[in-house]
Amino acid sequence: MSDSDILKEFLVESYENLDRLDRELVGLEKDPEDSAALGSIFRTIHTIKGTCGFLGFSKLEAVTHVGESLLSRLRDRQLKLTPEITTALLSMVDAVRQMLSQIEAAGQEGERDDSALIATLTRLQRVPEAPPKVELAPAPESISDAVVAPVSIGDILMQRAGVTQAEILLAVKLQKAGDPRHMGEILVEQGAARPADVVDALRIQQASRAQATAASESSIRVDVGLLDKVMNLVGELVLARNQILQFAYRMKDTSFLAASQRLNLITTELQEGVMKTRMQPIGNIWGQFPRTVRDVALACGKEVSIEMKGKETELDKTIIEAIKDPLTHLVRNSVDHGIELPADRVKAGKSGIGRLMLRAFHEGGQVNIEISDDGAGLNPERIRQKALDRGVITAEQAARMTEREIFNLIFLPGFSTAEAVTNVSGRGVGMDVVKTNVEKIGGTVDVQSSRGRGTAIRVKIPLTLAIIPALIVACGGDRYAIPQVSLLELVRLGPDQVRSGIEMVHGAPVHRLRGRLLPLLYLSRELQLAGAAEPQTQEEHAVNIVVLQADGRQFGLVVDDINDTEDIVVKPLRKQLKTVGTFAGSSIMGDGKIALILDVLGLAQRAGLVGEARDQAVIEKSGESAQTAGQKQTFLLFAGPGNSRMAIPLSALARLEQFPASQVEMSGRQWVTQYRGRILPLIRLHVALQERRNQSRALPALPAPGSEPLQVLVLNHDGRSFGLVVERILDIVEDRAEVKSAATRPAVLYSAVIGDRVTELLDIPAILQTASLALQTHTAVKFAEAAN
Amino acid sequence: MAATSQFCTFYLDKLLFGVELQRVQEVIRALEMTKVPLTPAVVSGLINLRGQIVTAVDLRRRLELDPRPLGLLAVNVVVRTEDGPVSLLVDEIGDVIEVGETTFEPPPATVSRSVQIMITGVHKLNHRLMHVLNTEKACQIGDSAGIAPCV
Questions:
Q1: Disulfide-capable partner of A198 in A184, A192, A221, A625 (CB 3.0 to 4.6 Å)?
Q2: Quick check: ipTM above 0.90?
Q3: Above 70 in pLDDT, residue A440?
Q4: Does A633-787 match A3-213 at the fold level?
Q5: Chain B interface includes A579 (CB < 8 A)
Q6: What CATH number labels A224-280?
């Protein structure tokens, strides 16, 4: 291995380690007691320090050395981790990173002055009030050596068998003086450790060594260029396979057919394998976000917690790299401009700590990445005004624009550098760059926002560099591929069914699919193919409908002919054709001809099928995820007294129970029952709903023996359980409970339309209050009676 | 001796055009073309160039010349551009010629503006003029060609 190879290896390894350092340091700040993380951080810095000493990078060594000393103080619990120390350590990581890139570019460290950083790190090392320092001068060196070896036997014994450090140091000294015995042997002979402990320790040591080697041997580094090449070759192989398969079916030679089938299977597996080699979980780039969020939040004086869902969502490496910067930008933006200052948040009734949520998931052959915050949201009026001021839109346009269109104005270049917009409305710095970068890889960016509740930015990225299953259809003599992921089903209307099967809604063709109207698009018309026949004149032909789904909307695409499903290699369209939103790419078919891949969403958008309505739905969805606008809630519906329809949020419900009437007992004026070893008060809804002055003073009777079992909702409130007796359980529904009107009686929050019917929403605390009030008055009376 | 450069020449509606030789990847006879609906007329379609999908540009239309007469099979001149190879459809391929700087002259102002950006200039040859084509500009189709971008 030459020097340059060693250097390269060192750089690659160090970069990886540094990325991990960022994460670990931020994690450590949250949980300063995590000694495993601290140990790992220490080892990383130690390794870098050691290697750069060996390679002769003295500046790098100097910085890492002070960093290491600081870390060792932390590890030995002489110092406590403070934000200041974390910041200093993070800036050390940055300095190391800068030096490494300098080394990578120029082969040497270059001129730089890190004395300020070194001074800070040295200053922070000073232990506040000199704690009793057990280990003396030689100790740190021997400890760090021990850390570099997988795990030293001495360490294990110290941790597990109560061997003191002095004893181990003595043993080390003996070994250095030429004692040929192992550490364990010396310790046992000195009576410092029991033989059994040493055996245990050895086993642990072996296990950890095996783990370390397994991790390093089970993966290798491969040049991405090579992977690209392999990927292209596999793409070609898939095409050749397709050609051979077609040929094999024509040949009708069984042995040839069998061989080609085998080729088919192997190719498919090979293709999957190669695809996988290029996939990386999105967590790889998210890993640095906690650090980003921390830094930005600290700089703005905010507190922000970051949550991540779908870290494991895999994306092609090239795409991961392409979206890294835009995503970082969006995250910074959310913290910087989206989330308000803690004081403002508290004023707005929110927790002082802002929430930033990252979510990634696959949907319809695309990867969705959502960055949402619970900040102030965008102010459409301000954006509209700004756009007018800057002359981006005309007054007439502004009046016509929907809220969503206005939000999307923030992606216009004109908005990018406007300082004022950043301050008043929230977003705007470099959003156009984000959009351009995402669109470069064929993705889209969309923003949704709700005033005071937050903003969600959704990035959609198609899987361009891929081999996908697709349905091949024919139209106007050419073939088109429809990605299988958008495909729902195929419907064929025979010549005699066409007249009744296709109806018109004010000129728009629809088909009744299982009782629901399915809007139809004619591919030939959408593509403006020559001789696109009018649907009315096609009656003598059968009609093929491909039922597709785009963004939650279904529609039927009428094509001339439906061929087969096939794996196709997606080749992105050249720039010249990118402006046509109807095609997602192109592919070479088995016969060497080219087929265009239809962009189902683009097609639907072009036809106006997907528009504002869909966005409404999306907002609802994302609102749910971000716990913001127009929440859908799950309700338990039940019949109350007089068969009135009532509901409680399902979240309030602990259990549904049925008690036979005979199990109900009386405690004072209160119905109770024995439930799981406790006494559960039962509140009868019709009693609770009565106005208090009408409440009968007579002792309530027990349910008549032999009457129907009681339907009881067991609810938990304020740490107390109680049962609510209702007439009948109706249903569990999900609804937004939007149309509200004021309550007409006590213990009811409001009336809303849930599941298309007017439903009263119960006010659980109020019910409890009436019930306990009744209880209290009763006891008061009792006391009064006793006093008399 | 003055610097010379080599040009791959071709004909379009009897006009002689030249493309710097190092920009030309290859010249192939007519290939089967796949139409791309909804694209401007200058895009003839896509061709399969040994597994690579290449956009074919009808250079006659691009340069605002008369459409190619029916029955005349176009020749593909595949040129390298920043955005990968693009095939230019021409009538007939000519010789590779070597010209010096002295014969070059920029296009006269009377050439229509939209075409002027694609023609760097002309070389005055013995019997005729050779138009030097700016391939990057000629292959730029989209916003620059006045097609409304999809919103």
A1: A184
A2: no
A3: no
A4: no
A5: yes
A6: 1.10.287
